[in-house]
Design a protein that fits this description.
The structure is a homodimer.
Chain A (H helix, E strand, L loop, with lengths): L17 E14 L2 E8 L2 E7 L6 H9 L5 E10 L12 E12 L16 H6 L1 H4 L3 H23 L3 E2 L16 E4 L7 E4 L4 H9 L4 E9 L11 E10 L3 H20 L9 E3 H8 L13 E2 L1 H4 L5 H4 L3 E7 L8 H11 L8 E6 L2 E3 L10 H7 L6 E8 L1 H18 L10 E8 L1 E4 L4 E4 L23 E9 L2 E8 L4 H10 L4 H14 L7 E7 H8 L30 H6 L2 E3 L1 H9 L1
Parallel strand pairs in A: 3-5, 6-9, 11-17
Antiparallel strand pairs in A: 1-2, 1-4, 2-3, 4-5, 7-8, 9-10, 10-22, 12-13, 13-16, 14-15, 14-16, 17-20, 18-19, 20-21, 21-22
Chain lengths: 589, 589
């Protein structure tokens, strides 16, 4: 029989109709001589009733054999329910079943199909098809599809052309680690899965496409954590002839459109903008969470007036005030907070508590000369707790920035109904990499330098600024973009500044440099991390919750067992050998 | 200055307005003391005029330096053109340029940016950004974006959920050759890029998603030809609880929607259906091109009445009639046609010409006893040319099917304005693979057998029929689908019929079999080859014309040089070695 509608969509208006529904047995109860079944499909749950006195023998026998997660087809009359269940959208009605067919049986599932479960992640991933049956998971994917559809409609209306770019691309060692794909037809050669279609979309601008977008998989072979997966999805766009303001306006329109159509929230536009320097100085982060205050205060000048050398001789002393939190933190609890700042290079975490009109704590005695001004500057009130870091400015900022985020969670300062978007602009072009002992691109080597700082490509690289803009949501980097270099001469100087030789630049990026010889237009764009965006909209803390079949922290899939061993024939065709000794040594470690 | 609009969109209604346009110099001509420039952007071309008598010196100097493919920004008054050019949508107007800025220069491109070019494929691919500037190429990608957007809207309206499935998947040797991706975190293990998300989408049905779709990249490491690329795009959908007719209706609706909204063509629904056997018998193909007749005629019974043993003793004798074509084919030309049928196993190609009321040619004398009946059955008319193949039925069908397609092209029988869609249904489940010396799946091992043939899984595999349906357009397989197996017991029998042991089935597909233990619903779906569909809509003969950055026939990209050599560090991290001897031997071949 043809299904009449989704089980979860039955309402009072269907009373009196005979319907056919199909779905899963969420629950069976035998009560007062009747059999009650909760029938579940993707739209929800509806109650079925089988009355052994009136139903046929076959129906009753089938009904009695039902267990959770059996797949069934039922036909019957929709009637008003005696006792309405106001917690269910279908709670006013039930079906009096007259026909029942079991379409498939089920063993007892390894965990219950309901929203709150306590199951370890690998079990959820191993039985992902059961995990996804849980209503809150299914909702995440409906949300995701609605967001992507809204984004596509918005960009389509603005004449963006959806273009697919290659997955089998060229390996470029600049940036994160590539996933490689061995070639069979060019033995010993490898494709790389794209970390982003950055250069490709620039070439589409060179081809005159003018406005490009794509919702596209990208790949990075890096160690994994909550908001990272080996493959992730990007809303990728690029335009020609537009200013950074115009690109930001398009992006803001896109985000406002999603927030309104999907979340029912009216965003105030334009979004706030702060410079990279201000973000670092005030929030200690290039992706500040502005849902709460607790900004960083600069006390460097003030503490010069003390004899406390730890402070007075430090390049920078900065502080944050945890309002009304002094009694929430014992000495031991405060000591534990040093674990938060240490990874950022801070050598220690000083603190004072403010009570009864004065500061207290181990270092209070060193600050008596500045106590009044400190109290006024920080506007201290009873029960405030002040944390100080005295160090290089960069370390002071970033360690207090991390502490700020940590305290906000612990002190429950975050209003989770807020969606605080903002732009971080005026980025440095380069950042120093301790690992590589050289300057690397803060964004990527194709970012346009701000015109008045171009000359520093051959001077002080710290002074080169980028025409780049990141968009931040609730402390997460939601996306980033920039204008790009379209002049070969500037691009060559950029590669040189990054330590490329003429030869190595040509070898890696010769095709891009050559493309710049043929009327490459001014262009720029942006990419948004879709998984992260959906995660934040869904109120989740791990992108795995919004990816249908994600990998675990070892980048493997407990369900299919991918990655797996492959046959010798497959390797031979690729002219590859696995270095088995290395594998064995590694396994013994 | 902000661009006012696209250059190619300027019309008479803009006369009298001062506009700013940006784009490429398509052509510069100096005529009668004036400088004329064709300015090109993605929407077309508009004429600019610079009058050295009235324009500023700077503008004139800039204009005189312009060469093809320079990128410029111009501002000026739109005026009516003295001599309108009716071939151009902008032909009524021109711009009197008052400001001109050169945004980027260009070297002379390696080929002209115009529609008809004679350039070898690798040059086009090496300078793909220039190739894509050619208006007909850009149109292909606008068409493609319009088609995908139309498909998405259609499926979204039908409550299909767009879900992304993994690119880093598990290698399954059943089917075509996988592209492998070595894992760094599980050394010696490999992911595979998906040949299609077949099992994944089935698991989404098991998860209760009910209606899934995705426009998704798929990968096959096979040798390449015109309608094959290493990566290709599929419109992939799957539904639960629907019959094959309902899935076909959804698909027909989708295709009709695209044809109407994108091509302005109203399709007659439902689409015709023919069985696999009829397709083979009448057209010699499982993807018949029905834009022309010339169907295969079965003469096996008739030729039994001759002494011509080549015919009378053959298992099957079939014929096609090339109407009014006898004088177009010399004996030599006919001899050459044997090259068309030989690859299909035909040992020869017999023929007669019909003229003056009788048949002629080398074998005519053997057919005198049946000449009248032959003439009547084939409804021969003057100047008809008849081809015969006498062989196994399969060989006779497929070789005449290929000849039929070949002759249609040579004789120009095809109406290229036609879009003939049809379903081929009632497929055999298995086909014999000479290469593997066993039965393999005609579609894939998850296809549901027709109920009354299931028992033959342990009997005559040739008798097992599939609940499968392919959709064909103009002789191309546009897509295919089926209902799938949802019962573990049937799936296990299917694997056994395909030669799997219990152990090898468990190792490869254990997770699917296990999933069938937990209430797997009845389900089915379909996948359409998007590249092929766009190619046919655009009237092209190679899918490269509708893929932005395709690979050449060696699966490499002449622009980026992908695939390329990678560093030892990259290989070491993957515990891989390239077998260099093998590479060298191979290069010497």
């Amino acid at each position: 029989m043809k299904r009449s509608m989704y089980a979860g969509a039955v309402r009072s208006e269907h009373i009196g109709q005979e319907l056919t529904l199909k779905g899963w047995v969420a629950r069976r109860r035998d009560l007062g001589g009747l059999i009650f079944i909760d029938l579940r499909d993707r739209e929800g749950i509806v109650q079925l009733v089988i009355n052994p006195k009136t139903a046929s023998n076959t129906v009753v026998k089938s009904a009695e054999s039902l267990r959770s997660e059996y797949v069934i087809e039922v036909t019957g009359l929709i009637v008003e329910r005696d006792q309405a269940n106001d917690n269910l959208p279908t709670g006013q009605v039930e079906m009096q079943v007259t026909q029942l067919t079991i379409l498939n049986a089920s063993q007892t599932p390894p965990f219950e199909i309901k929203d709150k479960i306590e199951v370890n992640d690998d079990t959820r991933l191993r039985y992902r098809y059961l995990d996804l049956r849980r209503p809150e998971m299914l909702e995440n994917f409906k949300l995701r599809a609605k967001v992507t559809h809204t984004i596509r409609n918005y960009l389509d209306d603005l004449d963006f052309i959806d273009v697919e770019t290659p997955m089998l691309a060229k390996s470029t060692p600049e940036g994160a680690r590539d996933y490689l794909v061995p070639s069979r037809m060019s033995q010993g050669h490898f494709y790389a899965l794209p970390q982003s279609p950055q250069i490709t979309k620039q070439l589409l601008m060179n081809a005159g496409f003018d406005r490009y977008y794509q919702i596209v998989k990208c790949f990075r072979d890096e160690d994994l954590r909550g908001d990272r997966q080996p493959e992730f999805t990007q809303v990728d766009l690029e335009t020609s002839f537009l200013s950074e303001q115009e690109i930001q306006e398009i992006t803001e329109g896109l985000i406002a459109c999603v927030m309104k159509e999907v979340m029912g929230i009216e965003l105030q536009l334009p979004l706030p903008q702060i410079s990279y320097d201000t973000a670092m100085n005030n929030y200690g982060s290039d992706k500040p969470d502005t849902r709460f205050e607790m900004t960083l205060q600069d006390l460097t000048d003030l503490v010069k007036n003390t004899d406390f050398k730890v402070f007075s001789q430090a390049p920078a002393v900065k502080a944050i005030v945890a309002k009304n939190a002094a009694d929430s933190y014992s000495r031991k609890a405060i000591d534990n907070l040093t674990d938060i700042v240490k990874p950022f290079g801070a050598k220690g975490l000083a603190w004072v508590k403010y009570n009864d009109g004065k500061i207290g704590g181990p270092i209070a005695k060193f600050l008596t000369t500045i106590e009044d001004e400190l109290t006024e500057r920080l506007q201290l009130e009873a029960n405030d707790l002040v944390f100080f870091v005295a160090d290089d400015l960069k370390i002071a900022n970033s360690s207090l920035g991390a502490l700020r985020n940590h305290l906000a969670k612990e002190l429950n300062l975050i209003d989770h109904s807020k969606f605080n978007f903002l732009w971080v602009v005026d980025w440095p072009m380069f950042e120093w990499s301790e690992e590589e002992n050289r300057y690397i691109s803060a964004h990527h080597p194709f970012t346009l330098p701000q015109e008045d700082t171009v000359a520093e490509l051959e001077g002080d690289l710290r002074k080169v600024r980028a025409v780049a803009y990141d968009i931040v949501l609730n402390g997460y980097e939601l996306g980033g973009g920039s204008l790009r270099i379209n002049q070969r001469e500037i691009q060559e100087r950029m590669f040189k500044a990054l330590g490329f030789t003429k030869e190595s630049a040509r070898k890696q990026f010769g095709f891009l440099l050559e493309a710049m010889d043929y009327g490459f237009p001014p262009h720029g764009g942006l990419a948004l991390g879709l998984d992260r965006f959906i995660m934040l909209l869904a109120g989740k803390e791990n992108i795995r919750e919004v990816i249908a079949f994600p990998k675990n922290n070892k980048a493997s899939d407990p369900m299919t067992q991918a990655p797996s061993l492959v046959s010798d024939k497959q390797l031979d065709e690729l002219y590859l050998q696995v270095n088995m000794n290395a594998v064995k040594n590694n396994e013994q470690e």
